Amino acid sequence: MSGEPSFHLTAPDVVRRVIREAAQAHGVKPAEIVIGGPSRRLVRPRHMVAATLYEMRHPCGKRKFSLPQIGAWLGGRHHTTILHAIRAHERRMGAKV
What we know:
Elements: H1 11-26, H2 30-35, H3 40-55, H4 67-73, H5 79-93
Helix pairs in contact: 1-3, 3-5, 4-5
């Protein structure tokens, strides 16, 4: 150990931060993103969270979070729902899927 403090955020801290930022950007409450229904005002920020978390990588290049992990953090959604959310967000942003 080098004695340097670790600034690494735990997975739940990172997830909470991403959800909070998406909620602020879309004018909704963080809890609504996690437990809310299929309302468009909630779906878009939820898609944004899913895509952001999925794109996060470790320094070695490996993804930080799996689709099932992201689904669990977003109200117990199935991994295929998360995959759909990521693809929908990328289409809206104009990125290739």
